[in-house]
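User: Working on a comparison across species. This one is DUF4097 family beta strand repeat-containing protein from Synoicihabitans lomoniglobus. Can you predict its structure so I can line it up against the others?
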Amino acid sequence: MKHYRLLSVLTACLAIAGAARAAESSVKFSNPAKPGTLSVRIAHGELRVQGADVDQVTVKTDARASSKGTPRSDGLRVISSSTSFALEESDNHIVLEYGLENWSEAAEFEITVPHNTHLNLEVSFGGEITVTDIGGDVTIKGLNGEVDLKNLSGGAIVESMNGEIEASFTAVHPNRPLSFTSMNGEIELHLPADAAANVRFRSQNGSIMTDFDEDVLITTTTSGRTFAPDTGEEFAEMAREVAREAAEVAREIAEEVRVAVKEARKVSVDVDVQAPRAPRAPRAPRPPSIPAMAGGKVISGTLNGGGVDLQVATMNGDIIVRKND
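Assistant: Here's the predicted structure for DUF4097 family beta strand repeat-containing protein from Synoicihabitans lomoniglobus:
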């Protein structure tokens, strides 16, 4: 009998945990007659955005929603929480942020938006990004993790330091440019057979391949050297730029640690204070920016006579451009 009771308790706990994980937050754009913009910035975790026939943005996540301003059962009001996310709307712009001010645990976010929503997505330190069925413009920046874009029909600007990028488009438009950059990772694009584009492909260490016919995708190959006398100098300049960025991040971390230690010492010495403030945890460092790319081989030309600007660049990885099946 005890085993049955224990099993019942465990089942109830799992049900409660599952309900917590399945908790949802929703918000509507203030002007639904116009395409809204969703901006998401998380430190690390998986991010999945799905376009749908809906009139609001719905977020499902295993992270806890912010309870800022809401009194707790003990009467305390939460001003800031280290593990919660914030979801706010203003002027047809919805912003979701999580884990940017401290070292929070990774979280998964599943977000449903109207099809025509514009997206600005950033995963600062690591995590996969997936976007499906979006007609608005998409801007993505990631440090470590794959980017998978499916059934897009708007513009796209994607930057990744370490991770493969795959994107498929149902339509492209002349005034909505496409740009894809990965320092380390393959980039694969799927375009409509009748897509018209002015193309520019750059690869340092990798092949550039396509299944478009030669009379449809007409290209020429040139050197990618732009600002240094030889490729070695270009790589050296890139290394210096990355080193400068890393040094700046290190300085920020050191300053945060210095402030935290100073506050901790103040708390330990000032014993007369009745309610000393807890020492502040060091803030998470900002992600390094992706350095400008140069060198390698550059292939430029036109697809179906020219149209939208399409730029693809990778330092270590292949570039593949396919026709949609």
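For your comparison, note: The CA atoms of residues 126 and 144 lie 4 Å apart.

User: Helpful, thanks.
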